[in-house]
Design brief:
The chain has 95 residues and is α+β, with helices and mostly antiparallel strands. Helix content is 35%, strand content 37%. It has 3 helices and 5 strands, in the order βαααββββ. A 5-stranded mixed beta sheet has the order 1-5-4-3-2. A hairpin with a 2-residue loop joins β3 and β4. The chain starts with a strand and ends in an 8-residue tail after the last strand.
């Protein structure tokens, strides 16, 4: 499994408060484990499909600090996770 960040994710991240940036940096190694099958972290970060967006998933680092992502599979079967957005619930308007 590969992990990539979109330019929008990077821009969103740069706009976060430093404390929230630190929370995201600390959480994402665990998010990666959740996406690779760790049920404990999957529940902790509330990872689920977004309603109204069948190919986009969401998760929460904290109660009002969330992220979105989508998955793509290469011809060789490698799954790549594209982190799309990070921030408050406002990101749900354009996930």
């Amino acid at each position: 499994m590969k992990f990539r960040r979109t330019q929008q994710f990077r821009d969103d991240f740069d706009r976060l408060l430093e404390s929230n940036q630190k929370d995201v940096e600390e959480a994402f190694p665990h998010v990666a484990l959740a996406l690779q099958g760790n049920d404990e972290y999957h529940r902790k970060y509330h990872i689920k499909r977004m309603e109204g967006h069948p190919n986009i998933w969401e998760g929460h680092v904290k109660i009002n600090l969330c992220f979105t992502f989508h998955l793509e599979t290469d011809e060789d079967g490698t799954v790549t996770v594209f982190f799309r957005r990070v921030g408050t619930h406002q990101i749900y308007k354009k996930p």
